[in-house]
Amino acid sequence: MGIASFFTKEKKEILDKGLEKTKTNLFSQLTKAVVGKSKVDEDVLDNLEEILIKADVGVATTLKIIERIENRVSQDKYFGISELNKMLREEIAFLLEETENKNLKGFDFEKQDYPYVILVVGVNGVGKTTTIGKLAHQYKSAGKSVVLGACDTFRAAAVDQLTIWSKRVDVAIMSQGMGADPASVAFDTLQSAKAQKTDVVIIDTAGRLHNKVNLMNELTKIKMVMKKVIPDAPHEILLILDASTGQNAIEQAKQFTAATDVNALALTKLDGTAKGGVVIGISDQFKIPVKYIGLGEQITDLQLFRRKEFVDSLFGE
């Protein structure tokens, strides 16, 4: 069974529960925006714009959605309020579709004789280590062998936390302890994984933004040594963002996409925020697909992001 297994009823229930705060907030605000209105007019659109911005969809993405709805309304002057949810749902689904699976090349585990390499980036505190552990669990549950590379050597706690997760999900880990050269750890991890024909390598990195030059240099060096072992590695550069931080997550995305070639996103802690609209804004603004969403503390609460199911949970079936 592959990691992209069927979307089960249990997973749908986890998704619904995880987006409950965002959904409740969105619909309560929409209801207030259309009280006493019989059609979509300028006031309704102004209120909708404010609602989307408060949900952290972002100004640029919000204006894009409003403009599209305005164009649709202008073609039918009697477009009623009952159609507003339908229009909003369709436009959000369309925006997410534009970046879905973009920039990620397929990887055939059966044909490749080397590991699939994932380089994980993100600031401290966004759930980076937890996401790595949950991701390792997903791959192992799908029948793949996994090794973790502890390349966040700036903090001793980072290596310790990753080691705990490796034991919890029963996967191998390569580490050299605090203060070691991150690129050296990455090189050794890939060499070992290639020699042992491991399926998946997940590399943790330091989450520091206070010195962007050092961050960029460190990530560049890690990628260079990876390519000495596997020329097209890393296959995936996964940026972890905390959805509950809203616009701060967007700022972090700007910093990391400037520092390295991020081609996939994971949004964590969606279950703890009413601002799940940040998923829409980040996906649209950076044209990078959201690959995973974190919906809780349980090891199974990291899900592959599915545009249709996300929109269904946000707006109802």
Rg to the nearest angstrom? 21 Å
Beta-strand percent range = 5-15%
Mean pLDDT value: 86
Taken from the alpha-carbon principal axes, the silhouette is elongated
Poorly predicted runs of 5 or more residues: none
Tell me the major beta sheet.
Answer: 8 strands, mixed
- Helical fraction equals 40-55%
Arrangement of strands in the largest sheet? 3-2-4-1-5-6-7-8
Q: Counting H and I runs of at least 4 residues, what is the number of helices?
A: 12
What pattern of helices and strands is seen along the backbone?
A: HHHHHEHEHEHEHEHEHEEH
Structural class determined from secondary elements: alpha/beta
> Tally of extended strands?
8
Distance between the amino and carboxyl termini: 27 Å
Task: Please supply descriptive tags for the structure shown above.
317 residues; elongated
Task: Describe the protein in words.
The structure is a single chain. The protein is of the alpha/beta class. It is 51% helix and 12% strand. It has twelve helices and eight strands. It has helices spanning 9-18, 20-33, 42-54, 59-75, 84-99, 128-141, 156-169, 182-195, 212-229, 247-259, 278-286, 307-315, and strands spanning 116-121, 146-150, 172-174, 200-204, 236-242, 264-268, 290-294, 302-304. An eight-stranded mixed β-sheet has the order 3-2-4-1-5-6-7-8, with helices on both faces. α3 packs antiparallel against α4 (59-75), α4 (59-75) packs across α5 (84-99) and α8 (182-195) packs parallel to α9.
